[in-house]
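Possible regression after last week's pipeline update?

I re-ran a chain I had predicted before the update to compare outputs. Posting the input and the new output here so someone can diff against the archived version. Not blocking, just want to make sure nothing changed silently.
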Amino acid sequence: MVTQKFGLALDLNEDPTLMAEYKKYHEKIWPEITESIVNSGIENLEIYCIGNRMFMIIEANETFTFERKGEMDAANPVVQKWEELMWKYQKALPGAKEAEKWILMDKIFDLHENR
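New output (post-update):
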């Protein structure tokens, strides 16, 4: 049961060839990556892209935390290999800390809360 929702942002390198390769990888991600996402408590994950800006929506159950996901990922060599490969295509947002990829966004509006 989804109890949490998060929005995150990240940029791609502004190279049309690299951007196309990145999107191709995401047409069918490695099964170990799907497994790691589901095992962390994420119920649904979507990525949208316009130009080189990406937006990720995570819907997760009550067991999910970013800390737990980070620990799981750090202990998983396949996830580490995937992340290293993806960094070829990605670039940090302005103001990101060193090696920081996806940045958690602040929710500023919710239609359901404003009815």
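Follow-up from reviewer: compared with the archived run. Residues 77-87 form the longest helix (11 residues). Marking as no regression found.
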